[in-house]
Amino acid sequence: MDQKTCSRSDACAQGHDCQQTCINNGSSYNCKCEVGYVLNSDQKTCSQEMRGEITQDACMCEAQILFQKKVQSTIQELSRKLDELSDKVTLIEGEQQY
Fold first, then answer.
1. What is the pLDDT along the chain (98 residues), one digit of tens a residue?
2. Burial class for 29, CB neighbours closer than 10 Å (0-12, 13-18, 19+)
3. Structure letter (DSSP) for residue 36
4. Vertex 93: Cα angle to 89 and 98 (nearest 5)
5. Is the dihedral of CA 70, 76, 80, 83 positive or negative?
6. pTM here?
7. Beta strands in 3-92 (DSSP E)
C-alpha cells in the first residue's frame, strides 16, 4: 500500500467462492473440503462422501437377494392385476355406452 514494500496477496481474503475451505496458492486459491466430504467437479462445492459398506456376511447377501426377488415378483404380480382391472374397467365403460 505504501508503494515501497511488497507483500504476498491473500487471494482467500480478497473473496472466494469455496463452499467450505479456501487455501491460498500464490496469487490464486484452491478449494478444499472438510473430512467426510469430497470436492465436486466444479472445484468449489463439496458433497458428503458416500462410503459403500461391503457386507462380509454371505448369509446377509443371500437374504438381501432373496428379499429383492420377492419384492420384484410382488411388484410384477400387482402390475399384472392392475392391468386386468384396467381391462375390466375399459370393458364395463364400453358396455355402458351401448
1. 677 777 667 888 888 899 999 999 877 899 999 998 999 999 999 999 876 555 566 677 888 889 999 999 999 999 999 999 999 999 998 888 76
2. buried
3. T
4. 150
5. positive
6. 0.43
7. 21-25, 28-32, 37-39, 46-48
